[in-house]
Amino acid sequence: MSAPQVEGTRPAAARPGTLHMIGNAHIDPVWLWTWQEGFQEIKATYRSALDRLTEDPDFIFTCSSAAHLAWIEANEPEMFAEIRARVHEGRWALVGGWWVQPDCHLPGGEGFARQALYGQRYFHSRFGRTATVGYNPDSFGHAATLPQLLLASGVTRYTFMRPGPHEQALPGRLFWWAAPDGSRVLAFRIPYEYCTWGKDLEAHIRKCASDLASADDRLMCFYGVGNHGGGPTRENLASIHRLSAEPELPALVFSAPDAFFEAADTARAGVWHGELVHHAVGCYSAHSGVKRLNRHAELALVRAEKFATLATTLAALPYPHADLDRAWQRVLFNQFHDILAGTSVESAYDDAAHEYGEALSIAQHVTNAAVQRLSWRVTVPPEDGARSFVVWNPHPWPVRVPVEHEVGGVRDGFTMTDEAGRAVPAQFTRSGATVSGWRRRLAWLADLPAFGHRVFTIRPGTAPDPDVETQTPDPFVLDNAALRVEFDPVSGGIARLLDRRSDSEVFSAPAAVGVVLDDDTDTWSHGRVRFDRVTGQFGHARLSWLERGPLRRAVRSVATYGRSTLTQDYFVYSDPALPVEVRVRVDWHEARQMLKLRFPLHLQFPQVTYEAPYGQVSRPGNGEEYPGGRWVDLSGVHRPTGELRGLGLVNDAKSSYSVTESALHLTVLRSPIYAHHDPYVPAADGDYRYMDQGEQTFTYWLWPHAGTWRDAGLPRLCAALTEGPVALPETVHDGPLPAAQTHASVTPDHVVLSVIKRAQDDRGVVLRLHETHGRPTTAQVSLPFLERELEVDLGAHELVTLLLPDDGSAARRVLLTELELDT
């Protein structure tokens, strides 16, 4: 049902354009308050909106965020019944279709997919409809791939406000926004503000009216008390009625976003290709903890769903729908833009940690239940003195990855083999059980079949086991057939990275160096697009050997700056097909400063490419701060050789980067005051709480390569780091599953099958595929565990969701919501 509209006392054609008056209440459920207070404010605001709807028959209220309505349904069912009646009447307009209004750069692609899955399905189940207008007025920027994700969830229009005209020029207030795959939505940038605090709207209306270009032009004008809720007031509504009689003003129409877009003239709308930046660049790195938790929780749940689906099919383990729904909803709520962006009060992050912890715990329990059930059905043959592990690969393509697991009772001399008796490189590494000589940590290199498993067996033997604590004389060098790493004794970084495959130097100066920059900005870094005032760097490094074994060698670097310590453990594996691995521990005790790791490359004319949500985006190397996903790549002309070469950097926790000429910088952390917002000026002797104090850890991989990021296979490489295998010690038994088996696979290698899950309505299995290289293709999907073989046509950059019904009927394409395409 389209929303009713009320025109002013004069015909709209006689007016200088039309303003669609959008009554809303932007509510931050968390910001300068915790979610418990936000919960109460949502109730108070919705009660006020319902009262205004009763008092004024012309008023229309616009509402987003399924999570808010779910709270009302559970806590105030009588109020929810009133809301449902107003929705069916057409005066409570549902927009957004997502669980909350998230940060629109930092979630992974699957995070956005689940915002739509849970938000739109909630709207559909409670109100019999889904949203067609995406709605993120206060989010701090918007990823280039969002139009495809919006269209794939049934959303054809989009409303936002940031970045503003002073931050990014666009074709106009109304424009077509196109994604790399060609998808496009009709987008509208809100003029001036998404909420109002004054009682009388005349000044705000006149300001918005100044943006009207002609008598037939239309704009949305948002009004209503916001942020801490409140919504449209009696005074707001009275002023609209009064001003509608003013002949020099535009026609004022009580309206909703759907009605505006239906009436909008799209003939003059230009097209915008790409992302929407820059606003609040400090949000890409503020509060490392919440960003790390979000990434880990998203990926842990995706992995848990894969194994749960396999265990349901092969071992009749009930699929834990309710547990996974609860976990996902915890993650999605904490992707709200003021939580995930790091701009809320400190106490809000205690709550976020608890909720992410619940999600991670559920993912762990679901994964363990599935892998335990499956491994019990894998044949493990008897052998005196042997110990076995079953290792599971969550990816539907083969991987060769290091695996670590604690093991008890294995002596120094041992051998390790796979199920076919092939020797596997393995060694002991540093154990968490430092008080026990019996319990040790084993590391080995696992070749794993696509979305499958393999049994590895440890046997007593005579192979030497090097002591991981043994100190080896200088020089500290890590090398294999492909790479040679030498270290800078001052900074503790990499003095030299030689790519032996091309006999080329990767870095032009010491790399992986901890650089400290001045950062006197507020939490958002308002008014700043780059950080380039270097105040110092970590130094006084101490180098020591950690490991020298048949699997890998490792050097530890410990450097200091002020009261802070940067520890980097560098690993180079004997297998030349593996990247340089660096495990980082930062103990940070500085205020209003930023830490970056610097990687200067021997490149000319570098192209910078970043992972975006279900895609990639290229940006200039202009020193500006940009958001990115798990990987970033610099490729260009290698100065000494003239060849096209590059470096891929993959990490499991960080999301902020900058590139200056040919130097890549990974932003590790920044330490502004919690919830500090300009124009407040902190007192020099003030007592404040600063972000990212204390210890944090993360891991990154460095992969020098020929060609570009496509040649390096970075989308699949990053999956190997961030969604690792699951290893389970297993006892001797027979079972219906062999010691090694593939359960699903996909080709070619530029197609990623990212999701395997049971459908929300439990009528089949859902797959999600993504073409990563911008090359149309036909994917071959083999699903032995379902006894299905599929051919799937994908366009360049296309994201496809398939439903495979349990009745064996043909696979069909569905929306991200798992509703039919024409629903």
TrEMBL record:
The keyword Hydrolase applies. CDD domains: GH38N_AMII_ER_cytosolic. SUPFAM superfamilies: Families 57/38 glycoside transferase middle domain, Galactose mutarotase-like, Glycoside hydrolase/deacetylase. It comes from the Bacteria. Its EC number is 3.2.1.24. InterPro entries: Gal_mutarotase_sf_dom, GH38_C, Glyco_hydro/deAcase_b/a-brl, Glyco_hydro_38_C, Glyco_hydro_38_cen, Glyco_hydro_38_cen_sf, Glyco_hydro_38_N, Glyco_hydro_38_N_sf. GO terms for molecular function: alpha-mannosidase activity; carbohydrate binding; metal ion binding. Keywords: Glycosidase, Hydrolase, Metal-binding. Signal peptide: none annotated. It holds the Pfam family Glyco_hydro38C2. It is an enzyme of class 3 (hydrolase). Residues 278-356 form the Glycoside hydrolase family 38 central domain. Belongs to the glycosyl hydrolase 38 family. This is Alpha-mannosidase. It comes from Deinococcus metalli.
